[in-house]
């Protein structure tokens, strides 16, 4: 019995060593695909996909298998922009996972389908697929960087649908998983990538809700990581910075951030990300008042070979065209209002000038009339004074004449009265002798007629 067990152990040791080597090779290959995904190297992913899938299947590393399979589907969608082909590949991979009872694979494919529906603009369906994926991962107790990547996409789609409370819960759940990455055995680079992505999406969540004061410390952390070249998701980081600067009103800084985003795309071209960049830059240009340049930028995207979904692009272009027309109408209305305001202002100024002229003229006429009236009043007063003087002199003269006449009449009356009384009464001294005269003959007595 001991000999049999020893023989079996010796036979299984090489097989275990081979499996261990295969797993080590599979882990290294997985890390390589993670790096290619970070660098948007679609050619490398597509060229190495078949060999990698065979390696992972032989090693039984189904988590790596579905990661590479879904990554290849995503890269092909971004490169070829063939929505029908992408959906068929997702359905085939989902059927494969279901037939082999790979629940982890089903969850991964559901996440990829959620990304696909979000990419073509059906955000509600994207949220539904991603919610099923996250629920499946939780049931499996999966805690690794792949799940964190799904949480990042899920949080982004929740933001697009305006479900900020649920988005905050997903971000908090992602932060809890980040703390467990080392325990779960996730690769350090993938863990840091997931942490950076969740940091970026959390900053964007606050920006899109108008809470720039809460986003500011997160943006400062992102900018420090960009300055130190330790940011593993630089495109998303610069996007968060650009949208924060745009929301803060610093349009020039936002435009500079989009230039950094474009530099990142030059390292790994991605039509979907390029389309998002153009939309962001178009909005910045529109808010800067450069609507013509923004409209031309968006129309130029229609002529590119590798662009985002045609239906999504046409809808967004139609919205942008409507917005452009509205902006032009607003500008024309502002011009019309300006010229109307100028015309009204000129009319008011002319009316005020005419009013001021006639008022001055009237004031001068009134002043002249007042002067003439003052002279006339002076003349009238002088005439009245002379008239009053003449009247007073005449009155005085008449008074004196009256008094003199009255006096004469009084004297005459008294004289007549005395004469009459002399005739009627005898003079007592009439028979008295006059001294010195009585003996003179021919003299009359005094008082006789």
Question: What would you call the shape?
Answer: rod-shaped
Overall average pLDDT: 75
Series of H and E elements: HHHHHHHHHHHHHHHH
In percent terms, what proportion of residues is strand? under 5%
Instruction: Count every beta strand, where a strand is a DSSP E run of 2 or more residues.
Output: 0
Helical content (DSSP H or I, runs of 4+):
over 70%
Rg of Cα set: 60 Å
Mind describing the biggest β-sheet? Answer: none
> How many alpha or pi helices?
16
Compute the separation of the termini in Å. 218 Å
- Unreliable sequence segments: 1-19, 304-310, 436-449
Judged by helices, strands and strand pairing, the structural class is: mainly alpha
Question: Can you give a write-up of this model?
Answer:
The chain is 83% helix and 0% strand. It has helices at 2-38, 42-59, 62-80, 83-99, 103-119, 123-140, 145-160, 164-179, 181-184, 188-208, 212-227, 234-247, 251-267, 271-287, 291-302, 310-424.
What labels describe this entry?
449 residues; mainly alpha
Q: How are the elements arranged and paired?
A:
Blueprint: H1 2-38, H2 42-59, H3 62-80, H4 83-99, H5 103-119, H6 123-140, H7 145-160, H8 164-179, H9 181-184, H10 188-208, H11 212-227, H12 234-247, H13 251-267, H14 271-287, H15 291-302, H16 310-424
């Amino acid at each position: 019995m001991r000999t049999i067990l020893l023989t079996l152990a010796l036979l299984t040791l090489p097989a275990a060593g081979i499996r261990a080597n295969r797993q080590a090779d599979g882990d290294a290959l997985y890390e390589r695909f993670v790096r290619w995904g970070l660098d948007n190297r679609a050619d490398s992913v597509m060229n190495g996909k078949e060999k990698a899938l065979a390696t992972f299947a032989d090693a039984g590393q189904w988590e790596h298998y579905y990661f590479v399979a879904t990554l290849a589907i995503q890269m092909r969608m971004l490169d070829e922009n063939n929505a029908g082909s992408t959906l068929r590949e997702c359905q085939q991979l989902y059927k494969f996972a279901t037939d082999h009872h790979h629940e982890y694979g089903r969850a991964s494919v559901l996440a990829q389908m959620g990304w696909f529906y979000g990419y073509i603009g059906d955000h509600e369906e994207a949220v539904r697929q991603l919610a099923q994926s996250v629920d499946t991962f939780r049931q499996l107790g999966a805690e690794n960087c792949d799940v964190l990547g799904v949480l990042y996409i899920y949080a982004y789609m929740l933001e697009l649908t305006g479900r900020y409370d649920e988005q905050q819960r997903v971000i908090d759940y992602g932060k809890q998983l980040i703390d467990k990455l080392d325990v779960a055995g996730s690769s350090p680079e993938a863990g840091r990538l997931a942490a950076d992505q969740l940091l970026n999406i959390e900053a964007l969540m606050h920006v899109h809700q108008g809470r720039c004061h809460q986003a500011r410390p997160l943006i400062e952390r992102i900018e420090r990581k960009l300055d130190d070249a330790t940011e593993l998701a630089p495109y998303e980081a610069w996007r968060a910075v650009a949208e924060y600067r745009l929301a803060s009103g610093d349009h020039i800084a936002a435009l500079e951030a989009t230039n950094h985003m474009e530099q990142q795309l030059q390292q790994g071209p991605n039509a979907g990300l390029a389309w998002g960049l153009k939309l962001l830059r178009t909005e910045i240009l529109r808010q800067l008042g450069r609507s013509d340049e923004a409209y031309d930028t968006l129309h130029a995207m229609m002529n590119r070979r590798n662009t985002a979904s045609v239906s999504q692009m046409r809808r967004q272009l139609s919205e942008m065209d409507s917005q452009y027309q509205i902006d032009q109408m607003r500008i024309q209305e502002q011009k019309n209002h300006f010229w109307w305001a100028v015309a009204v202002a000129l009319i008011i100024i002319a009316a005020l000038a005419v009013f001021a002229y006639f008022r001055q003229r009237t004031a001068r006429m009134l002043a002249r009339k007042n002067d003439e009236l003052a002279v006339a009043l002076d003349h009238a007063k002088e005439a009245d004074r002379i008239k009053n003087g003449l009247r007073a002199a005449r009155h005085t003269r008449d008074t004196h004449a009256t008094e003199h006449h009255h006096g004469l009449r009084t004297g005459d009356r008294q004289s007549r009265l005395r004469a009459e009384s002399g005739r009627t009464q005898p003079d007592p001294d009439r028979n008295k002798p006059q001294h010195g005269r009585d003996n003179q003959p021919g003299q009359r007595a005094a008082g006789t007629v």
